[in-house]
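Reviewers of the previous submission asked for a worked example of the structure-prediction workflow described in the proposal, so we include one complete record here. The input consisted solely of the amino acid sequence. No template or homolog information was supplied to the procedure at any stage.
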Amino acid sequence: QAIVEKIIMLRVIMLLSVLVGTHGFGSPSPTRGTERRLEMTSGVLTRRSSLLSFAAVSGMLVPFPKSASARLESVNRPDLLPSEPGLNVIQTEKFLTTGQVRRMDAMLTSLEKDTGFRVRVLCQNYPNTPGLAIRDYWDLGKEGQKDDKYVVLVVDQFGGRGNVLNFNVGDGVKFALPNVFWTRLSSKYGNTFFVKENGIDLAVTNAIESIVSCLRSEDGFCTAPPDEGQSLKSLGMNNT
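From that input alone, the workflow returned the following structure tokens.
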């Protein structure tokens, strides 16, 4: 399974570097001499690689096309965005219950208020995704934007063939949660075996609770997700 997931991620890198043809949010690709190398590790796409390019996100969540001439189309569907502004969790594919979404939204709102870290969740099934439109709704990952203390978790089942947890991480989070943390987090909860045994909703909630607990910890630093069963206090929910 690990080998299959590594192959998928290598193919993702090929897709982003060869087929997507964008740098940042739809801006022209740099020349070959200045092109930045993609930095992906087990479902982690950093700001340096594409500034949270949701055009790439909407295209990366499908297997590599069998035909050499196949092209993935970026998605821009503002009609799939919720009418209510400011939601931290958006589902175009319903993986979470209403209660889980409500609790997670409150947890992430409290985290942002207390720490400044913005964590967002998009549950999708490509091409059923807002795609590019999500950047304006959340005001994240824009070219020249100074606020880079964000994490976006994109949840997609890959047709049951890959890791369901894909993280877009701003540079402002990388000191607290380095790449090795995201690799271990996605490997722990996003693999097909965990999802099959426990459900995709538990994979998402466990991942988010791990992120929140680490960002709220006294050390403010984690290289691995904590054990399950985080206390409400560690999640900032003691008064909720």
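Residues 11-42, 46-72 have pLDDT under 50 and may be disordered. We consider this example representative of the routine output the project will generate in years two and three.
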